[in-house]
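Technical appendix A lists one of the benchmark inputs used to test multi-chain prediction within the project. The record comprises three sequence entries:
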Amino acid sequence: METDREKTENIIYKNRKAILDDWMEKIKKLSVSPFTERIPEAQLMKQSYDLLEMLRQEISKPGNGEIAGKESEKLLSLLRNIISIRAEQNFSSSETAAYIFSLKDVLFRYFRDSFADAPGILQQEVMRVSSIIDRVGIISFDIYSEIREDIINRQSKAIMELSTPVIKAWDGIVLLPLVGIIDTVRSQEMIERLLQGIVDNEARVVVIDISGVPVIDTKVAQHLMKTVTAATMLGSEVILTGISPEIAQTIIKLDIDLGVMRTRGSLKAGIEDAFQLCGLKIMPKKENA
Amino acid sequence: MKVPILKLGDILLTSIQEDLTDQDAVDFQNDALCKVRTSEVMGLVVDITALDVVDSFMARVINETANMVRLLGAEVVVCGMQPSVALTLIEMGRELLGVETALNLELGVEKLRSLIEKRQS
Amino acid sequence: MMKEIIGLQQQTDIIQARKIGREMAKTLGFGSADQTRLATAISEITRNAIQYGRGGHCAISGYSDRNERKISISVEDRGPGIPDIDKAMEDGYTTGHGLGAGLPGARRLMHEFHIESGSGGTKVVMGMKQKNF
């Protein structure tokens, strides 16, 4: 005697080709920018076929529909695989979830046809499969957030590295142009990179330009002071340039002591100063020498 | 471990090549002071490139040594501090204040020469 | 999970402890600035244990998993204890020959720092952690 569970599984198994086709149709109609434009159709088919197979096995399992244990591991790793590809392809979380949930309507249509003479079983099996797919949907959502977070972390790390370049301006002179908000994490990174840059370039003079820093508060000033002290300890001179009138006002009003710092208004003046500290001078080229 | 202190013309060169125990550090201070006194040099360069930890005790020894040598009429330049050491010292809230520093031995000697010149003029 | 225990009796043990700490931090993937912070903090705390605490031991343990890497240091001594911990945590306070920067300095270098002290000795537990990407 076939159990209800086995009957349901059989329906899916027998109709798997048709279910897959219907599901694909549904997916294509889903989002504003169609799925198939972003994923090659063959790839989407393969993913969906594998997923349907795994789900069928999950549905055949006795129990309360909990997605756990050894048998579910393959399903979870497949989900992780599919979703990490989706996240990289810039699918939104709702598009990713909709992909899973859209399978429900398709499956239930086949259930209705097959269980037409047994409404009780139909209702029971629809409830059961529905709850399994719901769980899979929720798990997908979690995996999606996790993966997106990873991507964001990686990106912010890359941005951090790009946003604090240490540039060799001349023999013995390095330049650190700061752009954007300086927070604690960034300042930490900035100091470490600058100190390494000083050693690598044997820089006697460091020019830190803050033209691109929108606001200076006590905290930022502290970070700057720390940077300057660290560079000085290695044996470099620091020149701070690009202080706008607004920032000069804030510095004085906040009573921040930048007294020990050598400051210059413009980057140009700072560079000139740096050359002088290195015993160099910029001169006009002599005509008709 | 004894830290060698070499005489080169009118200055002394010394390079701390490995982690010193507290006793080694105190011995080094005594040696350096005696050598400055007996060899009548104008300055001392201390290279700390090889030190990957400078804790508050070591910082204090370096600081004090520099001040003591200055009392004896000579100048001191510490050179070769590693970036992460500088960072750590600042974060601890202890800086090697009052010590002249340079990036490497070459720049250290150069700086020492200019400090000696300043003192003599 | 890695774990090392270093006995603290003489000055060379300080160097030994910080070397082991640095090595472990390196193995776990901490950068050179963090390695130095850690080695320096170990140096401060183990010196205290030897100088004021009549020796003891230092346990260094660490792990790295999908989410984070962490290294923990626990230093225990058998000394008379610190009478006023709050005061000992202040900059510049010293009963010995240091700069008085040992305890507060180590606390600033680490992410976690706990100290307890009684007549049976002093125990410092400190940790440094970082997210793994």
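The domain at 5-120 of chain B is CATH 3.30.750.24 (Transcription Regulator spoIIAA). The two ends of chain B are 39 Å apart (CA to CA). Comparable benchmark entries are summarised in Table A2.
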